[in-house]
Amino acid sequence: MSNKEGSGGFRKRKYDNFPHNQRREGKDVNASSPVMVAFKSFQQELDARHDKYERLVKLSRDITVESKRTIFLLHRITSAPDLEEILTESEIKLDGVRQKILQVAQELSGEDMHQFHRAITIGLQEYVEAVSFQHFIKTRSLISMDEINKQLIFTTEDNGKENKTPSSDAQDNQFGTWRLKVTPVDYLLGVADLTGELMRMCINSVGNGDIDTPFEVSQFLRQVYDGFSFIGNTGPYEVSKKLYTLKQSLAKVENACYALKVRGSEIPKHMLADVFSVKTEMIDQEEGIS
């Protein structure tokens, strides 16, 4: 047995080779030392950053919830008699969402947005989806990222009263001006989610006997799909991952247009939705097998 091992066959610890009086004993840490002062400042900075991140996560959750409620409201347009009333109500809801985004912009004042982007991206995507959905209902066109960002310029005055005003690119917090820019990835992911809402609107329209909306939605989705096809696998992973879902939504809408065009005259309007739903299930099963 080696002389480095004790009677029990275990290797001795390194400090057992030193006399007890020469072992390193714990000493009181000097809180005023430069090292401790530096690490104390690091701790305070990290704690403040973590707290800010958690506040942004909560704001993003609120933005997501309110944006979803706006989308649910806009879906009532297919069956509601008064279009303008619902659009006005949706604009009020979106104004409330923008007030939450103002709080995000204030939290990010002086910070690098990309360090906190993961905390707010879900909320921004849902906001883009809600705004673009409302814009499509109004104009049958796609809202641009620049138009969205123009709505996210805020000027606070008169003790916190917020007014959206166009201003210069420079941020001037001294005069209460904040802005938040939606990133291209947030915009693309929001538009990709929009296609699913348009597919649902198409289904509701068919059920209500509206034969114009499905063809308008089909043409629009084809243009969006062509645009995403140019990006392909060269874009961010999240964008390319949603291309398959976008293709499914387009197939369902085109199938509805086929049913309306070929068999619409022979099928009663109240039965179109049933025929369409059956064909949709068949498409899902075929794509699942393949």
TrEMBL record:
Matching Pfam families, A to Z?
A: Translin
- Note the Gene3D superfamilies from the entry: Translin, domain 1 (1.20.58.190), Translin, domain 2 (1.20.58.200)
Instruction: Tell where it localizes.
Output: Cytoplasm; Nucleus
Write down the SUPFAM superfamilies for this protein, in alphabetical order.
Answer: Translin
Q: What is this protein called?
A: Translin-associated protein X isoform X2
Q: Does the keyword DNA repair apply?
A: no
Q: Where is this region: Disordered?
A: 1-30
High-level lineage: Eukaryota, Metazoa, Chordata, Craniata, Vertebrata
* Entry keywords, A to Z: Cytoplasm, Nucleus
Q: Which domain of life is it from?
A: Eukaryota
Query: Could you tell me which species this protein originates from?
Result: Galeopterus variegatus
What family is this protein classified in? Belongs to the translin family.
The record's principal subcellular location, in a coarse class, is cytoplasm
